[in-house]
Automatic annotation (TrEMBL):
Gene Ontology MF: a single term: hydrolase activity
Source organism: Gordonia mangrovi
UniProt KW Transport keyword: no
GO cellular component, as recorded: cytoplasm
Domain of life from the UniProt record: Bacteria
Pfam families membership: cobW, CobW_C
Keywords on record: Chaperone, Hydrolase, Nucleotide-binding
Lineage summary: Bacteria, Bacillati, Actinomycetota, Actinomycetes, Mycobacteriales
Reactions listed under catalytic activity: GTP + H2O = GDP + phosphate + H(+)
Protein name: GTP-binding protein
Domain CobW C-terminal: 247-337
Family assignment from sequence similarity: Belongs to the SIMIBI class G3E GTPase family. ZNG1 subfamily.
Amino acid sequence: MTRPTVPVIVVAGFLGSGKTTLLNHLLRNAAGARIGVLVNDFGSINIDAMLIAGQAESTVSLSNGCMCCAVDADGAQDALVRLLRPKAAIDAIVIEASGIAEPRALVRMVTAFDDPRMRYGGLVYLVDAATGSQLRVRHPEIDRHVEIADLVVVNKADLAGEDELARVRADVRAVNDTAPLVVTADGVIDPAALFDVVPRADEVGGTRSRQLTLDELLEECAHESGDHGPGDHDRADRRHDHLHDGFTSVDFVSDRPLNPRRLAEFLERPPAGCYRIKGVVAFDVPGHRQRFVVHAVGGFVRVQREPWGGRLRTSTLVAIGVGMDADIVDRRLAELVDDGEPDPNGVLSITRYLVTAP
Ligand SMILES: Nc1nc2c(ncn2[C@@H]2O[C@H](COP(=O)(O)OP(=O)(O)OP(=O)(O)O)[C@@H](O)[C@H]2O)c(=O)[nH]1
């Protein structure tokens, strides 16, 4: 019996819009389907892979920066080939793009893999219901991403009022009036909706109606990323405005526990330019020695608590933003390490953000 082709779905969306949350929901509710996951995070520490680890059958992290700009696409291709092996018996593959990846290039990368065992499964694009309307003004590229989406998920509906939701819906519809639009919280969508997404025939520019070869794709990626040799770089860069231009990340790893009060201040009032902070942290506070997963997205803080489960009690944080002063961020991160000063209620500044895992 021949196996049906495996859909390869790209999940994209701005920083912190809820991609990992949606993916985790999908993995927990796959109803027996085996899902292969490819995570493309930004920065050298792959926090998203850490947050998905243990749930996916096979997680392949690409931590070489932005996949769409990786001139050597072999990493992604090898990962897909590995997931497509009949022995892996994978029913669907989901690629979680970094929050600043260029979805159009990712889609082309997938459609360029000329492998009869797979088919392109659509672009799922997440929009943050609470911040989406302001973000698209500051980052007009977001509209171009929504435009090519096959399914638009307006997530974080719980954080938006009726008016905000109506505005975000109208914004989406203004640039894409054909893709299904789902309003959701915590990425709760029916997995069947994803696996059934069929690419639209009228894709902008017709890129999906014709498969690009990998060489063509790489040429295009090199062109788009301004990779024309050192002398040409500035000139080439001015020709395009990928969302990730100007974004930088600062990583932090410590074997020492962090100070909860200082961490809360860092999450609530991040350094100038920092939009997104995520990571896992350890505190040396009686009753609070579990693994804390912390997120801050444009001022919204969320924390989850779970057992370490045999993992090293290491604190790992990534701060992502535009125009951040890396030295200042480094310094603030270094100051998070606990110096043992007694602070009996300090942990409350973190636990007040605790949510139970959806
Ligand atoms: N209130 C609320 N918070 C949410 C919702 N969905 C996700 N979050 C939280 O938003 C934060 C970011 O969610 P992620 O799923 O990590 O977002 P992401 O798009 O993968 O983030 P990046 O990979 O950094 O771009 C986490 O704290 C989530 O728990 C939601 O519907 N409502």
